[in-house]
Amino acid sequence: MKSKKIFILLPDGVGLRNFAFSSFVEIGEQMGWEVVFWNQTPFDLTEFGYNEIKLQGKPRAYTDLLKRAKISAELDYFEEKFNDSVYQTYKFPSSNRSINSKIKNAIVSQLKISHRGEKGIQKLRKKLKASERKSDFYQHCKDVLEKEKPNFIFCTNQRPVNAIAPLTAAQDLGIPTSTFIFSWDNLPKATLIVEPDFYFVWSEYMKKELINYYPQINSDSIFITGSPQFEPHFNLKLRKTKEDFFEENNLDLTKEYICFSGDDKTTSPNDPDYLRDVSKAIQILNKNRETKLGILFRRCPVDFSDRYDETLENFKDLIVPVEPIWEQIGRDWNSALPTREDIGLQINTILHSTAVINLGSSMVFDFAILDKPCMYLKYNVENKQKENWSVEKIYDFVHFRSMPSGKEVIWLKSKEEIAQKLKAALEDTTEEVERAKFWFDTINQFPAERASERIWDSINEIVDSQHYEAGKII
Fold first, then answer.
1. Which one of 98, 101, 115, 296 has the lowest number of neighbouring Cβ atoms within 10 Å?
2. Does residue 451 contact residue 227 with C-beta atoms inside 8 Å?
3. Count of domains in the chain?
4. Distance (Å) of CA 42 to CA 8, 39, 65, 154, 329
5. Phi, psi of 432 (to 5 degrees)
6. Superkingdom of the source (predicted)?
7. Based on the domain organization, do 31 and 162 belong to the same domain?
8. pLDDT (tens digit, 9 = 90+) per residue, 269-324?
9. What pLDDT sits at residue 170?
10. Is 68 within a domain?
11. SS3 readout for 402-414
12. What's the whole-number mean pLDDT along residues 138-153?
């Protein structure tokens, strides 16, 4: 029996963890698939024994301007449709430093003004594809597809503009296409840049969200699978003993560690101040504890700043940095790529920490899987680094509205209450952990460890069907 061929489209590095550094390929091969990565990352996946074809070329500059206009127009439309100003907070100011950037911004602004509302946005979506059809990149993609003849295209990320050409070329050739919605907070941000035939989402909650924002998408084209990013937490082979993990990372076996999980500079510009406040609280607690506390600091993998240096130096007796194992290929944040080694590091960081403290991170779910509580920072520091930033703005983001009760985490609403609430958390957090697990099951399909299997089952359902058309199996 001839095997079916799938192209796993990697337009950037964010899909590596879920689909290259996991059991995803192995599961597909066991189901009879020939798996080929259509790869535009700097990683050489042949080193891991994978088949790959390098994706060569780039989108047209005009396509990127159309993408920017579409995102801005959609956020304006969402604000109007849902009567909610939160969507304006997802916009980021564009640079106006050079003549070139000013010209681009003017074009984007005019495109947005001339494509207002649902009908205007639909025209922008069509123009995105039409623009890419004029590119050499599109022709390259079409040539590869005509030669390789894959049965299915699976895009690992719905956000990159460079995914438009390969998916459009496949659709023009009648090859079914799909995308995975990468993160739990993506849809409200208008980051759905591609328009494939089929969509893979984390949960029933996310399916409803997708239809809510994009009612033109056929419900039958959406498959609920969960996210593979949580599967490694269930892989016992990745776990190390406390002794080995502590020795490898210069941790003190006589201490109990709290993980401080850093955010990127945009999400939490005041992270060093929060880390300082947590450190001072732990100093207070340690005066009356036989087993001393320490802080295991895991910074955001794409934060390469020196902003924590002063705090790390001032509390070097308490804080042990355990650096994420990511590879920095270029200078931008999106040129930092995950590695297989970091998956194990993250899992053992969770396994051997008592709790996690952060500002609004999805690490709440990673810790809940291993029965560990999460504490969310929810106060504004003095001398804020960004004037237009506040914790109120962060926790008003739409994805936090998925929280069933608001009691899934321990809220730290001032620096003065950190010590007291941390002390209580170390004694008993059974209720918070159970609520966090329920929240996790709301935003990610249960059981979490079978996400890859469900994705492959859905792909088989699509391809094995005798007939299908765009967005629907018939």
1. 98
2. yes
3. 3
4. 15, 8, 25, 19, 7
5. -65, -40
6. Bacteria
7. yes
8. 999 999 999 999 999 999 999 999 999 999 999 888 999 999 999 999 999 999 99
9. 97
10. no
11. HCCCCCCCEEECC
12. 97
* Residue 328 tokens, joined: 């920095």
374 and 268 share a domain? yes
Provide the 8-state DSSP code for 270: T
* Whether residues 210 and 331 fall in one domain: no
Domain identity same for 365 and 400: yes
pLDDT tens-digit series, residues 321-365: 999 999 877 555 456 788 999 999 999 999 999 999 999 999 999
Both 433 and 455 in one domain: the answer is: no
Residue 405 is assigned to a structural domain of this protein = yes
Residue 435 has pLDDT above 80, yes or no: yes
User: How buried is residue 270: exposed, middle or buried, by Cβ count under 10 Å (0-12/13-18/19+)?
Assistant: buried
Please check the confidence at residue 147 and state whether its pLDDT lies above 80.
Answer: yes
Look at residue 467 and tell me whether its pLDDT is greater than 80.
Answer: no
Do both 270 and 332 map to the same domain?
yes
Give 257 or 92, the one with higher predicted confidence: 257
Give how far the C-alpha of residue 255 lies from the chain's centroid of Cα atoms, to the nearest Å.
Answer: 32
Tens digits of per-residue pLDDT, 364-380?
A: 999 999 999 999 999 99
C-alpha span between 239 and 245 (Å, rounded): 9
Evaluated on CA atoms 236, 237, 239, 240, the torsion sign reads positive
| pLDDT above 80 (res 436) | yes
CB atoms closer than 10 angstroms to residue 132: 25
Residue 304 Cα to chain centre, angstroms: 18
DSSP collapsed to 3 states, 418-448:
HHHHHHHHHHCCHHHHHHHHHHHHHHCCCCH
DSSP reduced 3-state for 355: strand
In the numeric block, which tokens belong to residue 344?
């194990």
Separation CA 186–CA 338 (nearest Å):
19
Given the structure tokens 């804080």, which residue do they identify? Answer: 319
CA distance 78 to 17: 31
Q: Are residues 174 and 262 in the same domain?
A: no
Q: Which amino acid is at 77?
A: Y
Q: Are 52 and 81 within one domain?
A: no
Q: CATH number, domain at 262?
A: 3.40.50.2000
pTM for the model stands at 0.94
User: Distance between CA 419 and CA 332 in Å, rounded?
Assistant: 37
Question: Of 125, 149, 168, which marks where a domain is finished?
Answer: 125
